[in-house]
Fold:
Amino acid sequence: MARWTGILASMVIATSAAWSSGAMAAEGNKPAWGYEGSKGPGEWAKLSPDFAACESGRQQSPIDLASAEKPGSPVSVAIDYKPLPLTILHNGHTVEVVIENGSTMTLDGKAFELLQFHFHTPSEHTAGGKRFDAEVHFVHRSADGQLAVIGVFLENGAANPTLAKVIAHTPPQKAAAQTFANTVINPRDILPALTQFWVYDGSLTTPPCSEGVRWMVERVTAPMSQEHIDVLSKAMGANARPIQPINDRQVVAPN
Structure:
């Protein structure tokens, strides 16, 4: 699993568009979906033919990580995130911070640009059945349209200064992107100092659930104050997709 599997061009386009900030802001172009009731995760595939992978896909995310660890070659990851003014939006499903300054990650020698990061409460992935207070996803795209996502579990603890800036400007409900020129953040400051990733091939965790996404979920958790967790939870509600079957996938354990 140390190399990318081939992805059809049409899937790459659909997947990239679904997680670009522009597409996320334009939720009105999609059938309405949510996290409970008749528009919840169990019904996503019925809401639109475009969402069929949410039910039929064999490489869906999120998954339980620790229960499926297998030996494999660890990935080589280099992170080069840069400071930038905070641009934040609420798309009706999550709070998202938009990145437009050339921040990059290099994965096994291939460059990926950081597009945005966003939040889920509680965590979407689990480790040995454990859910965490929250999870942040750093979404990257390569020049040829492939996606790679770093997931980091957030646990109640000390306040993170960068997250504190994000929370201070978090919209309480759906809102268009707004830039705060005097509030500068560096996304790298949210990540743990150590990088110990579970690695697997998965999908978007929201409709259209397109597959072909490389996932790297950090074993080391990051702290976030309970006050800040509560702000996110109140703004977004419970927005974690249920755990999906592993099927025949390999999940490489952290090194």
Summary: The radius of gyration is 17 Å. The first strand starts at residue 69 and ends at 70. DSSP finds six helices and twelve strands in the chain.
